[in-house]
Amino acid sequence: MNARLSNGPDLGRLRLSLLKNFVPPYNLPVFRELQAKVREFRVFISTPMESDRRWEPEWGGLAVTVQRTVTVSRRDEHPHGFSQRTPLHIPYDTLWRLRRMSPDVVIAGELGSRTLQAMVYRRWLSPQTKLIIWATLSEITELARGPVSRLLRAYMLPRADAVLVNGMSGLRYVSSFAVPERLILTVP
After folding, report:
1. 97 within a domain of the structure (yes/no)
2. Long-range Cβ contact pairs of 172-181 (< 8 A, separation 24 or more)
3. How many Å apart are CA 169 and CA 167, to the nearest integer?
4. Integer Rg of the chain from CA
5. C-alpha–C-alpha distance, residues 91 and 71, integer Å
6. CB neighbourhood size of 179 (10 A)
7. pLDDT in tens, 113-131
8. Residue 6: inside a domain
């Protein structure tokens, strides 16, 4: 990876924040690489580890901040005939933490309250900040989402500067919310 993207900013000067539920071990190499390329990289998470994961928290030298968060358990009924309990994390200090860090770029995952707070931060407190939504989803995973989630996605996705997806199904899903394909980056 070059220290400068073609026609883009000098990465060595960027302050980058990443908003996620937790840091899974398979993301560590990517996060470490990002940390090495930018001026400041901080990961804001809702919990050190979710209770249904078998991993121990491992941050490997990353700058990680556990946010103030309320977590509720919800039961998702999937149209393919199964149900599952999933934690819903609602961090409530994202605006304050972003304002304190003053990042140039925010990558927000999960399309929930942390992404909404990142949008508020960019809109009202730091209009020059770029917002990238990291949408780790597919057309199948999103079948279980209700009307409120669809409304939130319809509001958030077209307002991002870019959207990261993990495959063609995610690209099709995000495109269905009027996000131009040029703004959707597929990162397996």
Report:
1. yes
2. 172/139, 173/135, 173/137, 173/138, 173/139, 173/142, 174/135, 177/153
3. 6
4. 16
5. 8
6. 23
7. 999 999 999 999 999 999 9
8. no
What's the CATH number where 101 sits? 3.40.50.2000
Global pTM exceeds 0.85 = yes
Q: Cα(38)–Cα(103) distance, rounded to whole angstroms?
A: 11
CA gap 156, 177 in Å, rounded: 9
Report if residue 30 sits inside a domain.
yes
Residue 62 C-beta-side C-alpha neighbours within 13 Å: 29
Q: Are 26 and 52 in contact (CB under 8 A)?
A: no
Domain that holds residue 52: 11-186
pLDDT digits (tens, 9 = 90+) for 65-82: 999 999 888 777 766 777
Is 3 inside a domain boundary?
no
The number of domains in the chain is: 1
